Amino acid sequence: MKTSQDKRGLILIFLVLSIFFFMVAAVFGKSLSTFGLKIILCGFCLTLLGLLVSAYRYECEKFSNTDDITRLRTLGVSINPHSLAGKVIYMLSITLIIAILLIILLLL
Coil, helix or strand for 82? Predict the structure, then answer.
């Protein structure tokens, strides 16, 4: 079983990838073809999806022994994925990212 440090490493990898895709789109967005821009945007959406799933797994481990709905952190608030509110928020976030990915694939 992976430790929380390993899951934090996955979060950092997906964060760096999403920043990379965002910077490539920002710098080369005008000079890329429509297909190239679609590839960059799909990669950005997939890294955001991976970031969200990794964060969900990380928070599941952090909230495994408590019934709290939220927990204060240094730079924000953690939401318990085991609570009803946490499940709704995570499912809406995942659905939104998948919808954006489908829109990029079908309309651009």
Answer: coil
- In contact, 60 and 81? CB cutoff 8 Å: yes
Q: pLDDT tens digits for the chain (108 residues)?
A: 455 556 677 778 888 888 888 888 888 878 888 888 888 888 888 888 988 888 888 888 888 777 777 777 777 778 888 888 888 999 999 999 999 999 988 886
Token readout for 83 is: 């609570």
Helix residue ranges per DSSP H, the chain: 4-28, 34-62, 84-107
Backbone φ and ψ for 50, nearest 5 degrees, come out as: -65, -40
Q: Are 47 and 17 in contact (CB under 8 A)?
A: yes
Pairwise CA distance, residues 1 & 84, whole Å: 26
Full-model pTM? 0.75
Residue owning tokens 């073809």: 33
